[in-house]
Structures are given as structure tokens and as C-alpha cells.
């Protein structure tokens, strides 16, 4: 890929949880899917090789490189007025705003391949969510709140992580219920939000983060009153991100021609490492599992560390009982630290 160096992401995956976290990003994507036109939904599925927006929504966090990490945020001084803010943003060529514009330009470029547009679309789905997380548009000296240590639910955390995922997790809702409770925009709000451009999205986040710094002090215990005050803000920002993502996709893909959906190729487990970047169907025995909190790692073909393939079970797929069972999995093979892996977020990807 020549025009923009999105392909650098394929080099050396780094597994991190950032921006809205797993639940938040999937909520943004699922809300967006509910507001797509039929043609846009079909085009998006085709470019994503049959995957949903939600399934690819955390890919950009799971495959960061040193080059692409700045695409997820924007650090800047507090106290800027709107004109100063816009000037600061436009002076930088590597931040979430410019990355969104690049992804959108690629989706409109008729010279690019379906694979290039797939990567651009995958980024756009994620970065629109990032742009709406207030602590991703915040000051540099504390790395967007990452160095402001706090306590929440009797555990150590920081201001950035609190807004990434801790407030959402505190609700205790399933992914389905999060979308049901968050997707509440009125027709008038949908129209207004979709008329705003990406600069307005990040200006809103900047205004919010500027106020959030005044609410806490390092070492403070965040209480239930704080949660009750700000969970409506979290809900609104995720809803806005989903509605605006839908608006952008309807504009970009509403009249797009449809690429062919690549069928999942059946492959032999012993050859799985030859199919990185491809959507496959593969069968094998699960020898061991490891729950690492955000996901369960299922080792296919042998026990860790000799597995031939790792299944990263997330979201609704995380509770699947796979140990000692022979299963067939469908998904895209990725390279994680030199080993093949398939991320499984939908139980339907697994057949017993």
C-alpha cells in the first residue's frame, strides 16, 4: 500500500486494551450497524469479508505499532479556544483526526483494492470510537490521564482507564443490553450528530476532558456519585460515535459497488501458519485454556506453548467450554508474536 502506510500495522502485534475497551468499541460498531442503509450494510460486510463491524472494531488496538499508535489520540494543551484548537489539530499530521480523514479518503479512492479498503474501513470503525472518548483528546503531560492514579471499586486504576472501560464495566451489562440502553438518539439528534464533522467530534471530547481534570486529584477514590454523574456522559458519547459512524459509512459506501465476499477456505491445521491474513475454516482439538481476564485463550493442536493455533475467545464467545473438544472455527488468521491466532467474538464462529 503506497498512499498511506496502514500496512505497517501488520508488523508485530501488541495486545492492548485502549480507548473504549472491548465492550465500548463493540457497542459503537453495533449501534452504527443498526443505522446503516441496506446497501451500506451489504457493502461493509463485503469489504470485511463477511464480518460484522463489531467483529473488527477492536482490531486496531490489538495490532498497534510504534507508527500507528498516535492515530488513536490527540494530546494538546488545555485552555484553547475553538480557533486555537482547530489550528493545533491541523498542525499535526499524525493523530486521530488526520487518521480518520485518511481512512475516509481511502474508502473513496477508486484506485485502491478491496483489501486496502478493508483495512481503511477497519480503522475508521475503531477511530471514530476513539475520537469520542474524552481522555483520548486531552493533555500531553499526563499522557491523557494515564499517569493520574486513582482507586475505583477498591482497585488501583488511572483517569484514562477509568473512562476507557471501568465506568462501562461497573454497569455490569451484557453487550446486548449496552446497545439497547445506549442507542437512544432521537431522530432530531441523529440528524444533528451526523451533520457534525470529525473536528467537532474531537472538540466535544476536548471540552469534556478539560472539565474532567478538575473533578479528581491523584490518589483519589472515585465513588458511586462520580459514576452516577458520568455514566450518562459515557452512554451519550458511545451513542454519538455509533450514530456518526453510521452517517459516515452511509455517505462513503451508500453508492459503492460491492466487492465479492471471500469464502472461508477450508485448511489443514498443520498448515495454518501459511494463511495469515486469510479467512479460513479449520478443525482441531482444544488441548488447554487460559483465562486472562479480557479473553480466554484456547490452544488448538497441542497444549501451550506448542499449540498450532490460538483461539482468542472474547465477548459472547468467551464462556464457550472448549477444552478437550474437537471444534471447527471460522475466522481470519492473524500473526500474534510469531504465532497464528483467530479472534472469536461470535459463538457462531465455532462448530462442535
TrEMBL record:
UniProt-listed Pfam families: S1-P1_nuclease
Keywords: Disulfide bond, Endonuclease, Glycoprotein, Hydrolase, Metal-binding, Nuclease
Superkingdom of this protein's organism: Bacteria
Molecular functions per Gene Ontology: endonuclease activity; hydrolase activity, acting on ester bonds; metal ion binding; nucleic acid binding
GO aspect biological process, one term: DNA catabolic process
Keyword Hydrolase: yes
SUPFAM superfamilies from the UniProt entry: Phospholipase C/P1 nuclease
InterPro entries: PLipase_C/P1_nuclease_dom_sf, S1/P1nuclease
The keyword Magnesium appears for this protein: no
CDD domains: S1-P1_nuclease (cd11010)
Protein name: S1/P1 nuclease
Native organism: Mucilaginibacter segetis
